[in-house]
Write a structure and sequence with these properties.
Blueprint: E1 6-10, E2 31-32, E3 35-36, H1 37-47, E4 52-57, H2 61-70, E5 77-82, H3 89-96, E6 104-109, E7 112-115, H4 118-127, E8 132-136, E9 139-149, E10 152-162, E11 164-167, E12 170-176, E13 178-185, H5 186-191, H6 202-213, E14 216-220, E15 224-227, H7 231-238, H8 244-261
Parallel strand pairs: 1-4, 1-6, 4-5, 8-14
Antiparallel strand pairs: 2-3, 6-13, 7-15, 8-13, 9-10, 11-12
Length: about 260
């Protein structure tokens, strides 16, 4: 029997920061370079050996169902679960927890496109018997920054890329940027499910508790990742107004997928 690897894609939110576009479609169906965000996610998951998908839907879930029906050739095993239009993330995860088929699963947001070796990260998580692995990566800081080195101002930049920040007053502490992707032990999720069942913020309530209780790791991804949070992000990606290496990674992904479909 083929091993099942489950991915839970959070896609039930209302996309309130998308303005009028968010009133028409859920965020995960926004098109980037002519394809839906969910299309990119499913393609990359398939390439990385994830063969069972759970979609906890809410807002305009019928459109996501229609998309999955029209793209059933990507991944055959998809469970679409109605979790309520106004449900928070904790409630959505609680409602689908028993549908997870693998010992460990990946939890990810449905509003980011990415292309990196997720398979190797998943294997490392299992090899080391970790129970929670955070995936961190680079992010673009959208404001101006003043570079300072050796008591001298050396430059001014906008849109610098960073993967971690230092915390004032704590030189031994480094905070890495969380991509919204984590690998979680199903057993531990079930064990501590009451911690997030009625939580207003799943990440804030569940993750800190788990860090104290389970074997936790963090892996910095090496590859393309871009979160689509608002209209500005959509325009930036579609107009190619972001880092050239990121656009090349996206073009490479689309080209690879197109050749696979021939």
């Amino acid at each position: 029997m083929k091993k099942m690897n489950t991915a839970v894609i959070l896609c039930g939110g209302m996309g309130s920061r998308l303005g009028s576009l968010g009133k028409k479609i859920p965020k995960t169906l926004v098109k980037i370079q002519g394809k839906e965000i969910l299309w990119f996610i499913l393609k990359v998951l398939k390439k990385n050996n994830f063969n069972h998908i759970i979609l906890p839907v809410g807002y305009k879930g019928s459109l996501i169902r229609k998309f999955c029906k029209n793209n059933s050739n990507i991944i055959k095993s998809i469970d679409i679960v109605e979790t309520g239009v106004k449900s928070n993330i904790g409630k959505r995860i609680f409602k689908i927890k028993n549908k997870i088929k693998s010992k460990n699963f990946i939890l990810l947001n449905g509003d980011a496109i990415f292309n990196f070796n997720l398979k190797s990260i998943f294997k490392e998580h299992e090899k080391k018997n970790n129970e929670l692995t955070f995936i961190t990566g680079e992010i673009t800081y959208p404001y101006g920054t003043v570079g300072y080195k050796k008591n001298k101002v050396i430059d001014f930049n906008r849109n610098i890329v960073y993967d971690a920040v230092k915390i004032r007053g704590n030189s031994d502490y480094t905070a890495f940027n969380y991509t919204g992707m984590s690998i979680i032990s199903k057993k531990k999720l079930l064990k501590y499910s009451n911690k997030f069942k009625d939580s207003k913020n799943f990440e804030v309530d569940f993750f800190p508790y788990c860090i104290k209780k389970v074997k936790t790791n963090m892996i910095k991804l090496n590859g393309f990742w871009h979160s689509i949070d608002n209209l500005k992000d959509i325009k930036a990606v579609n107009d190619k107004k972001f880092l050239k290496n990121k656009y090349n990674a996206l073009k490479k992904l689309k080209g690879k997928i197109s050749s696979e479909n021939k």
